[in-house]
Design brief:
mainly alpha, two-stranded antiparallel sheet, 10% strand
Length: 97
């Protein structure tokens, strides 16, 4: 069972996440697009880099969905995509500040 304390903490975390979504102007995106964004952010935070394959593997979303979303983010200047210097087949994703 979920305790009252757990419910309060989860509610606080969800409220915080919604606040960050507003602050980062993510409210216009659907839940799948937000999942891609948060996956990119968490991957960069944990591994200091992120590529499209990382997002597909960690998010469990289809390649098509991830690619379309990242392309949309790039057009809207939310992310920057660059070709890896070490592997020309790999494209790295960075968050724009």
């Amino acid at each position: 069972m979920v305790s009252d304390e757990n419910i309060k903490e989860i509610t606080h975390l969800i409220d915080s996440l919604r606040g960050y979504e507003k602050e980062l102007n993510l409210t216009k995106y659907n839940e799948t697009e937000k999942k891609v964004f948060w996956t990119i952010l968490c991957t960069i935070s944990k591994y200091q880099k992120c590529n499209i394959s990382d997002v597909i593997n960690f998010s469990k979303l289809s390649r098509s969905t991830v690619y379309k979303t990242i392309t949309k983010f790039e057009k809207e200047n939310l992310v920057n995509i660059t070709q890896s210097g070490s592997d020309k087949r790999e494209f790295l994703i960075a968050l724009n500040k």
